[in-house]
Amino acid sequence: MKRYVIFGAAIGFIIPLAYWADYYLSGYRHLFDNDTVTLWPSSILLMATDGHEGSVGSLLVCGLSVILNILLYSAIGMGVYILTRLFRQSK
Questions:
Q1: Quick one: CA torsion of 82, 83, 87, 88, rounded to 10 degrees?
Q2: Do 42 and 72 contact (CB within 8 A), yes or no?
Q3: What is the maximum alpha-carbon separation in the chain?
Q4: CB under 8 Å to 31, separation ≥6 — which residues?
Q5: Domain range holding 37?
Q6: How many domains does the chain have?
Q7: What are 22-38's pLDDT values in tens digits?
């Protein structure tokens, strides 16, 4: 189970990191596309930082958004583990 949860947490961290990298490397063009909220559901919290980028509060909101995404993907990893275990037991 630990492996599934850690893998989910890693994916939950990599997705926001990839979006931010794309945002900065593209010259601050666009952070939100149609797939952003699908893959990074807690990114909706970033609306609270509009116009206050770089402030302490903005950094806290960004960190909270990433942490919530990590927790969400960890829970998904745990759910996948439970489902695979149930599927294996039913065989």
A1: -40
A2: yes
A3: 55
A4: 19, 20, 23, 43, 46
A5: 2-90
A6: 1
A7: 878 887 677 677 777 88
